[in-house]
């Protein structure tokens, strides 16, 4: 395994992956730093640039955007009191007060160091844990895949926001969209209305770009006249060795929390950050100081959310099920690159997967260098005119969706899904379940067909195999816990 | 420019769900029975549309029972609608007029619409961006961007 990892590092630095990772980190940090633009949108928008690259380099670019995007969110959280991404929400609590005390440079340095260290711990856990899970997943047959995909679909419960029904409604809509085109068993065209463009189904990339880039750009257009808050000034950047030693236990503990939260599908970087912040406050000797601008309050959420990025990749790579919006879009990116996420990726393409692991570890070193040396430059990004960026997102979304197949039909798909996503957000119908449905729909249908072929039409095949029974138990557990937490949320309102 | 709409939208959306369910059933009515395996082309879509229909009814009942009307806040709705129209026009004309001119026009118009009034921004941003995107997509990514009327030149 270690030899594969070393080979991964070799491939990363000799196969063109490292510059792509660095580029992804820079672009991701800029996108993450700009309030209103998320890492998810960045990944969706840059997928078209990956398919001319070798798969490992393309994935390195996406990983760079994901990690950079989550880190970048802390820059605006500290300097503007507005998190650039939801993951930076908890960083605001102590980051901005510290910046107001004239120590923005210290706050940014803590955020950078904690993000890089937390991310490294998360990446190491991903590297050593994922292959073991993949080994177990290699034992799956079609019935297990059906149940795995259904388990993946239960994640809709956790990304649904306030209403479970609305989340499932969105998810079923995505599943129905996925049935457009030739049916996977008999090859009969469904809902194509004679349109040849629909024979192979609705292409994933334009849908991704529409739902996550155009929707967000329309939301930015809606708030085009909003003033940006004043930016805190950066004086000196850095922390003392004593300060570093004092936050090190918080960083390590938060990294484990973040990785674990990320590895559980249905959670996200924002939840990881708040959980770690809460734990750091609970276990602190001076909890009353949290919220006044202390460095532990920055280190905990930043370590946790960057570790969570790596944790979230565990179910995505090993089982092919996305846990939340950003990994759902990454999963789409993997498919665009011609890779089928899941345990077979570990068996058939170990060189790619270990290059990706090397990439996740290296991304944290790049983050540390970029963050400490280039922070003043990234802070300048915050003064870029927001409306110019919004306009550019529209153009990149349109041309990006066209570019994959040189097909004008894909532009229409992007626009339709962009408008749909905008109104779904308005009427509080969550968008990520649509994507989960589109990704997992074909997996459910084709494996259902295969499982029934094996069992000669008997549905007992789903209840008689040990791994299937395990999945049924976790599906029930997942649904019950989702119902309970939604009820709790309703009672709290 | 800010407008708040209060209405029983879930009732309408639930109704749409029910309608989708009926349409899927009608469309899949004449799908052939499976010649391979045990599920036909209609099985899965029908299962999904049934669930959509059921959830649609639940949404409708819930919205009538709870009378929990959602407040939908539309800010600068005219701007958003104009951007959407501009996007549609961009997609409609790009095939005939070509990438360069349509993109320059779209960027210029959207920038102006979103309150950019500085002449240097309005002139240079569309031109530089279009050239840059053209270089990246055409020369680096090898994408054949639509040329429209320039294809005859």
How would you describe this structure to a colleague?
The complex is a heterodimer of chains A (493) and B (153). Chain A has one domain (2-492). Chain A is 73% helix and 1% strand. Chain A has helices at 2-14, 17-33, 39-46, 55-80, 89-137, 142-154, 164-178, 204-222, 241-263, 269-282, 296-319, 325-336, 343-348, 350-381, 386-403, 408-426, 432-454, 466-492, and strands at residues 181-182, 189-190. A two-stranded antiparallel ribbon of chain A has the order 1-2. In chain A, a hairpin with a 6-residue loop joins strand 1 and strand 2. The radius of gyration of chain A is 22 Å and the shape is globular. Chain B has 5 helices and 2 strands. In chain B, helix 1 (9-27) runs antiparallel to helix 2, helix 3 (77-97) packs antiparallel against helix 4 and helix 4 packs antiparallel against helix 5. The model of chain B has no long low-confidence stretch (mean pLDDT 86). Chains A and B meet through helix 7, helix 8, helix 15, helix 16 and helix 17 of A and helix 1, helix 2, strand 2, helix 3 and helix 4 of B.
Largest sheet of chain A: 2 strands, antiparallel
Widest sheet of chain B: strand order?
1-2
Q: Which chains share the greatest interface?
A: A-B, 58 and 69 residues
Rg over C-alpha atoms of chain A, rounded to the nearest angstrom: 22 Å
Number of H/I helices of chain B: 5
Sheet with most strands of chain B: 2 strands, antiparallel
Compute the number of helices of chain A.
18
Shape of chain A: globular
Strand content of chain A: under 5%
Strand order of the largest sheet of chain A: 1-2
Radius of gyration of CA atoms of chain B, rounded to a whole number? 24 Å
> What is the count of distinct domains of chain A?
1
Poorly predicted spans of chain A? none
Count of folded domains of chain B: 2
Number of strands of chain B: 2
Tell me, rounded to a whole number, the average pLDDT of chain B.
Answer: 86
Low-confidence stretches of chain B: none
